[in-house]
Structure formats: C-alpha cells, structure tokens
Design a protein that fits this description.
Radius of gyration: 20 Å
CATH class of the largest domain: Mainly Alpha
Low-confidence stretches: 179-186, 388-398
CATH topology of the largest domain: Growth Hormone, Chain: A
Number of domains: 2
Shape: globular
CATH architecture of the largest domain: Up-down Bundle
Length: about 400
C-alpha cells in the first residue's frame, strides 16, 4: 500500500510535468525564464536536501507524508491558477522540496518493514513505481489533452496527492517502523550528525570509483534537466506536433526506461561496466542528436525510446557502482552524494539551457546535450569504472534517475 501511495503521488507529477513548460510559456515566459524556473527547484533541493533528511529522522512517516503531499497539492494548485509566470518559481521549489520528504521517508520505512534478506525485493518493488508513473502519467495526460486545457489538467492532478494521503492515513502501524529507525539515532546531537554526514560525503567524493561515476551522473543530470524543460515546448510550439502526440512519446520513453532493467541486468552479468557505460552514453548522444535534427513525430518517438533504454541502463550501472564501492553503513551517503550532484546539475542545466535557447535556438539545447553525453562516453572509455563485488549488490534493480 505504501508503494501504491508513492505511485499515485509520482503519477501526479508525471501528469503535470509534460504540460508544465507549455503552461509557463503560455503565460508569456521566454526560454531563459523557463530554464531559470526549473533551476530554482534544483537549487532549492541543493540547499535543503540535507536539512530535510535531518528533519525526517525526527518526525513520523505520516507527518512527513502530510508535509509532502499537501505541499505537492498546493504547488499544483498554484500552477493551475497562476495569473502570470512569476508564480511558477516558488511553486516549483515547493513541489521539489515536498517530493524529497516523501522519497526519503518512504524508502526508510519500506526497508524497515521487511527482513534483511527481503530488502532488495522491497526496494525493487518500490522503485517500480517510478517506471509505472513515467509510463502511465504521460499517457493519462495525452488522453486528457483531448478534452482539457493545460490548467484544467493540473486541476485534475490535484486529486492524486490527496488520494495518496488518504491511503497513507488508513494504513495501520506504519509510523512504528519509521520511529524504530529514529530510535537508532538517539544520543547523537544535531551538530554531530551534520558533521558526520559532511565528513562521509567528503570521503566518498575522494574515492576514484565514486568520483568518476558521480561525474558521469552529473553530465547526464544536466541533459536530463534540459530534456524535461524544453522537449515539450520544442515539439509542440516549434515543430507543431500536437501536444497529445508529444505526451504519448514521453509515455513510450517511460516504458522503455522501465523495461531497460532487463537488458541492464543481462549486460552487467556479461560485460564490464566501462563497456556498458560507453554504450549507454553513446546511445544517449545519438538520441539527443536525433532529437535536435528531427522534425517528424515518428523519428522523435524512436529517438526517445532509445534514450529511455539508455537512460535506464546507465542508471542501473551508475547506482550499482556508487553503492557497491562503499561499505554498507555508508550507502545512504552514497545515495545522498549522487542526489547532490543531480541537484547541482539541474541548477546549472536549467539556466544554461535557457541561455542556449535564447542566444541560438531551442534545437541547439539538444545538440549541446548530445555533446555533453558524448564527453561522458569518452570519459567512461578513457577512465572507466568497475563495480566491486559487495554484500547487498544493487544491480538487480534500477534507481529512478
């Protein structure tokens, strides 16, 4: 039921995200302003992710879920009723911060509810919610676009976080698992906890395996931000492809991303991670180039399907290498380190993409993305990373990004 609630919440974002850039531009924002709005959310996460993590160790799961889902509800309402684009930056920041509360506490609670040997299966089940939402969220948006305007679709989506909150509140005895995790942290002051966390992050960044993987994660994070920010605007407003067709393309990309864990697992059993990352980043580079050069919906769809497959394969390898390169007790910090790099990439990517789209053209944004991930392919081939065999290997499931 927790996974169902998380899936509903993530689906709300997946329904809104395809039309969010279109709604912002509809209210008169330029590409530079659009990119800056998206960067604001990443910057807010960058600053607040550690404090949110500390807060989540001191409140119950239902309290964190309430903050998250009511925040998501308020942000989507603001998107829908905004009279001008100035509303979107703070609303986007609220949405990003709200999602962090639910993500942190849901993972901790789910892993505390099962036996040690069942954690991998439980996490895999939870992470499936991201793939399901990425597939069916845009598909639902495509159907709604036949009847509703952008702001009306957003109003429709406000029901989803409230539904998820209702499911969480009818669940029995969930908070005791979260509280059990909190009890383990008693006796450690806030100052000591922050110092320990920062120290572990610094030590992790100095490890070659994690540093190289983090650099690749950062490069792709920039391009993923550019894609999420500008693709629908490019396809709908510049290529004149109907919005419902564009959201179907996004749904196909989400489905490919979800299915990618099957070939990723197969490849990791038979190939070096250096080779897999080189193939994945090369495919990403070709896909971004195809998007920048294509004007036909079918070609864009094919490029997005390949991109979705490569995206998922890359995620499996990067997260497996990062988390298997450190001792089990510091793996939460590995996740925090990778998420931190993603936030930095998002902050930079939104602004840089807006500048590129303003100075050159919006298609140049995807050409720049192609170049960035080509650098990633070259880096994977030149420096390489190899996963270490470790207890609790995570290669059997994919992280969301």
């Amino acid at each position: 039921m927790l996974t169902l609630a998380a899936t509903i919440s993530i689906t709300a974002s997946a329904v809104v995200d395809p039309v969010f850039p279109l709604r912002v531009v509809e209210l008169g924002a330029s590409e530079l302003i659009l990119g800056s709005i998206v960067a604001t959310a990443s910057l807010a996460l960058l600053v607040m992710r550690l404090p949110i993590g500390l807060i989540c160790t001191r409140i119950t799961f239902k309290q964190a879920a309430s903050i998250s889902l009511l925040g998501q509800f308020a942000a989507i309402i603001a998107y829908a009723v905004a009279p001008d684009y100035s509303w979107f930056a703070p609303a986007r920041a609220v949405a990003a911060l709200s999602s962090a509360f639910l993500g942190i506490t849901t993972m901790a609670t789910i892993t505390s509810m099962v036996r040690q040997e069942e954690i991998g299966r439980a996490v895999a089940t939870y992470l499936t919610s991201f793939g399901v939402s990425a597939t069916f969220g845009p598909l639902l948006t495509s159907l709604l676009l036949t009847y509703l305007k952008y702001d009306q679709i957003m109003m429709f989506a406000t029901a989803l976080p409230l539904l998820a909150l209702g499911i969480i509140y009818v669940l029995p005895s969930v908070d005791k698992y979260n509280e059990a995790g909190n009890d383990r942290k008693q006796g450690e002051s806030l100052h000591e906890l922050v110092g320990r966390a920062l120290g572990e992050l610094g030590e992790m960044a100095r490890q070659r395996q994690v540093a190289i993987t983090g650099a690749l994660h950062f490069l792709f994070g920039m391009t993923a931000t550019l894609l999420a920010t500008f693709f629908t605007v490019y396809a709908v407003d510049h290529l004149m492809i109907p919005a419902y067709v564009v959201t179907l393309i996004l749904s196909a990309r989400g489905a490919a991303n979800t299915l990618s864990r099957i070939p990723a697992s197969y490849m990791m059993d038979r190939m070096s991670t250096r080779s897999i990352l080189f193939i994945a980043f090369s495919a990403l580079s070709v896909s971004y180039f195809a998007i920048s050069a294509s004007a036909e919906a079918m070609l864009l769809a094919l490029a997005n399907v390949v991109l979705g497959l490569a995206w998922g394969i890359r995620a499996v390898v990067e997260w497996t290498v990062a988390e298997s390169s450190v001792p089990p007790k510091t793996r939460p910090m590995a996740s925090a380190f990778m998420s931190f790099l993603w936030d930095v990439a998002g902050s930079i990517g939104g602004i840089v993409g807006g500048l590129i789209a303003t100075v050159h053209s919006i298609s140049s944004v995807f050409l720049a993305s192609s170049i960035l991930v080509a650098l990633g392919a070259a880096g994977a081939a030149a420096f390489g990373v190899e996963r270490r065999k470790a207890v609790g290997d995570l290669s059997q499931y994919a992280r969301p990004a």
